[in-house]
Amino acid sequence: MLILGIESSCDDAAAAVIETDRPGVATVRASAVANQDDIHRAYGGIVPELASRNHVITILPVIERALAGAGCTLGDIEGVAVTRGPGLVGSLLVGLMCAKGLAQGAGIALVGVNHLEGHLLAPLIEHEVAMPYLALVVSGGHTAIFAVEDFGRYRRLGSTRDDAAGEAFDKVAKLMGLGYPGGKIIDEMSREGARDRVKITRARVKGAPLDFSFSGVKTAVALYLASPAGVATAAADLAASFQEAVVEMLIRPTMAAARDLDASTIALTGGVAANSRLRERLAAAAEADGRRLVAPSFKYCTDNAAMIALAGSYRLLRGERDPLTIDAEANLAL
User: Fold this and answer.
1) Which structural domain, as residue segments, surrounds residue 227?
2) Is the full-model pTM beyond 0.90?
3) Fewest CB within a 10 Å sphere: which of 7, 84, 87, 196?
4) Mean pLDDT of 242-265
């Protein structure tokens, strides 16, 4: 079965074509992404209206690139899987309405996909992973731990009480005047810094050991920058110290959840899964505990349509389809 995936939940417009004959196993024939970093860099973050307007311009060319890269036409596609939430509603609507039009015009099946489900299943694109497994989803909009019990069966074990980890990276980068996107810049700068130069308290959520809170580390950096010590500290040292605090705050609840579930496999996914220090330290923690860490390659960590196509494939393979009346939901629950 050839499936076209469409993703437009935030600022990236993406399309992909996968080939599959059973759930969780697929070959990515082509994947294309239209990135908007250059548009939003001047504002230090994503401007929702600009994101959706740019999607209107790029969504069809991105789909055409994916089809051409896969060596097929829309007539060869048997199903369309599209993100319907959560995300920026304007951005979601562009991708969803485009998918509806293609499905109706070509007479092919349509399924709406939860963006988080895409991230949870993204490791399966490149790795053989037996279910159940534990997944840490960490991105600009989400930070949560899930038990992935089966296709369509996900149990949230913990989540952030305030900022997502990726949001904290971007906000701290803005406070430091480093530019956008902040996560990548801080990761690169941290390689030259001292991780113990600045003491940043690691937050814990009282009574909820599997939950996260990142607003405090962001505030700590802001206060430090305003102090005499902050003025004298090298930016690389502050970046490295901040990153180390966030990484430790992500690892502690994740490993606690893995022990609670006795999970043999931990999946790290989402945009912040591209962070080199997080991958390094979580892999070491998993190995020391006798567990396996799997993570997608960088191109499947950030928002992409291959994971959306894969997440929709198990429903399409069993003959399911959604009506053309499905709508975008900015706060769609998993």
Assistant:
1) 131-295
2) yes
3) 196
4) 97
